[in-house]
Write a structure and sequence with these properties.
The chain is α/β, with parallel strands linked by helices. Helices cover 36% and strands 10% of the residues. The strands form 3 sheets. Strands 2-1-3-7-9 form a 5-stranded parallel beta sheet, with helices on both faces. A hairpin with a 2-residue loop joins strand 5 and strand 6. Helix 2 crosses helix 3. The protein is globular and about 60 Å long. The structure holds iron/sulfur cluster and FE3-S4 cluster. The site of FE3-S4 cluster has 12 residues, from loops. Iron/sulfur cluster binds next to helix 12 and helix 13.
């Protein structure tokens, strides 16, 4: 898979074609994003238009304290590869995991992106360590806290991508010796109001949907936890294909049981679907499946403090 950073002179369509993504593939992808947004396939052309409109802002993607699983989910997504869609339709000018530049050249790329005449969006992956003046997390000799503090205030929009960036996630689990915080908790005093797209990992379709809405100037309605209602407006349980079995009182007794294989409810095996808000049953991962369909209970990965509040994962 070829990865490119920044925009060349070709049109978006030409760049996509160069990477083997046909117009049809692109529209199919936009249709999946529209369905994830709860808009229906008819909204796909509007998403396509937003992603290919001229004068798009640059995108700066910051990494903080995390496992890089959010980026991994993005890069392992199905055809048409979402990274191609993202990299070829919007200009990701700074992303430490996939950019070729290193050292001073990388820092220069960051500062150039911040000067983009069309402005920039900032996507943050990972929690921000705040103990010991942020010294638990440094990049190029600067703390993650300092880098975020420099970049976030100038962004047209900030997206906290993944549960760590949204709510602290695993790095902030008790006893949290590094005092890790999510973006909004960490930078409220700077007036930052990031859109939270939690999940461990989050679904890349939700990121694309949020970016498309921002580029199209569509106001995203957010819930009390700053999550777009379009993606996080319903519980996993409400949308789950095993729900009829829950309602019939049919609970799988073990993971390897015939009942589990036949789609019985996983509640008695620890499923946290009733208290978890996300669109996994509809959006699915890689157009293929999602945890409960694959036979694993939802562990509530997109909720605040899930590591502390949702454990033990296999008991209810
Ligand atoms: Fe609800 Fe989980 Fe049972 Fe699905 S498997 S119906 S989400 S409790
Ligand atoms: Fe996470 Fe539950 Fe979806 S564990 S990936 S919110 S099914």
């Amino acid at each position: 898979m070829q990865i490119s950073i920044g925009l060349g002179k070709e049109s978006v369509e030409e760049r996509l074609e160069l990477h083997g993504v046909s117009r049809r593939d692109f529209l199919k992808f936009c249709s999946s994003a529209a369905i994830a947004m709860g808009m229906g396939p008819a909204f796909a052309p509007a998403i396509a238009k937003a992603l290919t409109a001229p004068g798009r802002p640059a995108v700066i993607y910051l990494h903080d304290a995390e496992c890089t699983g959010c980026t991994e989910a993005l890069l392992r997504s199905s055809k048409p590869y979402i990274d191609e869609i993202i990299l070829d339709t919007i200009s990701i000018d700074y992303q430490e995991t996939i950019m070729a530049a290193a050292g001073e050249a990388a820092e220069e790329a960051l500062h150039q992106a911040m000067k983009n005449p069309n402005g920039y969006l900032c996507i943050v992956e990972g929690a921000i360590p705040t103990a010991m003046d942020g010294l638990y997390g440094t990049i190029g000799g600067r703390t993650m806290y300092e880098i975020n503090k420099e970049v976030l205030p100038g962004a047209k929009a900030v997206i906290a991508y993944g549960t760590c960036a949204s709510f602290g996630g695993v790095p902030a689990a008790a006893p949290n010796p590094t005092a890790c915080k999510g973006v909004n908790d960490c930078f409220a005093d700077l007036g930052i109001k990031a859109i939270n797209i939690p999940g461990c990992p989050p679904n890349p379709l939700n990121l694309i949907g949020a970016i498309a809405a921002i580029l199209a100037g569509t106001k995203l309605e957010l819930d009390a936890l700053n999550r777009p209602r379009a993606f996080f407006g319903h519980t996993i349980h409400e949308q789950c294909e095993r729900l009829p079995h829950f309602e019939a009182g049919e609970f799988a007794p073990s993971f390897d049981s015939e009942e589990a294989r036949h789609g019985w409810c996983l509640y008695k095996l620890g499923c946290k679907g009733p208290t978890t808000y996300n669109n996994c049953p509809k959006a699915r991962f890689n157009d293929v499946s999602w945890p409960v369909a694959a036979g694993h209970p939802c562990i509530g990965c997109s909720e605040p403090n899930f590591w502390d509040n949702m454990t033990p994962f296999y008991k209810n």
